[in-house]
Amino acid sequence: MARSSSSDDELRAAVAARRDLGPDYEDSLVEGFLDKMDQEIDRRVEDRITARSRKEAPAVRPSVDAGQRLALSIVSLVFGVSATAGIAVTSGENIPVVVILILWLGIVGVNAAFALGRRR
């Protein structure tokens, strides 16, 4: 509201000056008023652009999620490789491929659930 009343005040002042000075100064009074309105419009546009850029560009910083994803990946690989090696060593020649497949599908499932859960 304060901005609108300031524009109203400018217009009233220009009209009052035109009455006092007469029609000879009308062109310069109108030009002066329009210049002030242009400056006001430019200022408002700049304010909006600044406000939008602050909203759209949050500070970039490493998140805790990135560290958690890395830790889960490392732990998953260590556990998966160790479990696969343990199954292979203890089974001898008859390696149960189905058990290893289930093990790795479980690891992939846990990692996928973690990644999808963090996005929401």
Describe the structure.
With 120 residues, the protein is mainly alpha-helical. Helix content is 85%, strand content 0%. The chain contains four helices and no strands. It has helices spanning 2-21, 26-56, 64-91, 97-119.
What secondary-structure arrangement, pairings included, does this model have?
Blueprint: H1 2-21, H2 26-56, H3 64-91, H4 97-119
Helix pairs in contact: 1-2, 3-4
The share of residues in helices is over 70%
Summed up, the helix count is 4
SS strand fraction: under 5%
Low-confidence residue ranges = none
List the main descriptive attributes of the protein structure presented here.
120 residues; mainly alpha; rod-shaped
Write a brief structural summary.
The chain is mainly α. The protein has four helices and no strands.
